[in-house]
Amino acid sequence: MSIDIKYFASLRDRLGRAEDRLDAATELTVAEVWAALWLDRPLPPNTLTAVNMEYAELTQRVRDGDEVAFFPPVTGG
């Protein structure tokens, strides 16, 4: 199972890259995708997530070929 992962805005800057690819043997949740890639870094508080360009909860299952995105909350003024 192959999953494309994208990082946006300040999260991308903090991690030092814009994307990853994860090959997993089993189906994962969004939270498990993060944990598989960043064992030493917890998911920052208030991070938003999307699966295939639709907002997603951390418990949502990810399937083969899905794209998972992580991004900080949007602020404006």
Automatic annotation (TrEMBL):
Molecular-function annotations in GO: nucleotide binding
- Which segments cross the bilayer? none
Which SUPFAM superfamilies does its entry note? MoaD/ThiS
InterPro entries xrefs: Beta-grasp_dom_sf, MOCS2A, Mopterin_synth/thiamin_S_b, ThiS/MoaD-like
UniProtKB keywords: Nucleotide-binding
Q: GO biological process: any one?
A: Mo-molybdopterin cofactor biosynthetic process
Q: Spell out the Pfam families in the cross-references.
A: ThiS
Q: GO CC annotations?
A: molybdopterin adenylyltransferase complex
Q: Which domain of life is it from?
A: Bacteria
Q: Which family does it belong to?
A: Belongs to the MoaD family.
Protein name per its UniProtKB record: Molybdopterin synthase sulfur carrier subunit
User: What is the originating organism of this protein?
Assistant: Candidatus Contendobacter odensis Run_B_J11
